[in-house]
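Sample pair:
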Amino acid sequence: MNKHLNELIELSKIDQAIDSYNPQLEAADKKVAKVQKKIDAAQAEVDDLASAIASNEEKIIAFEEQLTLLNEQLASNVKKSKEITTEKEMKALSLEEDIAKEKMTFANEEIERLQGINETKRTLLDEAAVKAAVLQDEFDAVMVEVSAEKVEIGKSKESLFIKREELSRDIEQKVLSFYEKIRIWAGNTAVVPVKKQACYGCFMKLNDKTYSEVIRGDEIVNCPHCGRILYIETQTEEA
């Protein structure tokens, strides 16, 4: 087999081996992202509950301030009642007191209602906070695991990169450039085997002349259909 073709086959296999780690890296990142998504959801729940509690607390404070003002109004009305001289003034003051008392009743009921809601929400908040903490522990454990995986993958890829660099230095620059141009669009299928007289890149059948040239392996042969570099695998040659 042509020396340059042998080199390109080996180089292509190294490139395939390097890129074969990409799915593992993607799977590791997805594992982290999956737990992170759960943490984000749990934290959003915590934030929503905390925000709702704070909003209710503001409403309770507003109602308490209203009660203070209404109490002051009723106290003031007691003083005014001593100075009233007509029945009309008495009725007006009585109506004002009734309205104030209705407002006070409503305010007290709302305070009680909001306090009950907040009591429930605080229980839910505690549960959500515990859940978020558990998920954070899970995330930390996954990060340790994924980091270890990536370190191992990095070491394996580094050794392959070194091997690729050494091989690239031995390949004639013109041949290497030719391979890299095809690899731009073909990726790791720049060099493919021929099986059953078909290119295993585009799966189109080769004519007899091209197939014979590939079998001989005297020079680099490109698929007439897709342009990939073709070769016959060892076991095919033996068969």
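The CA atoms of residues 18 and 160 lie 7 Å apart.
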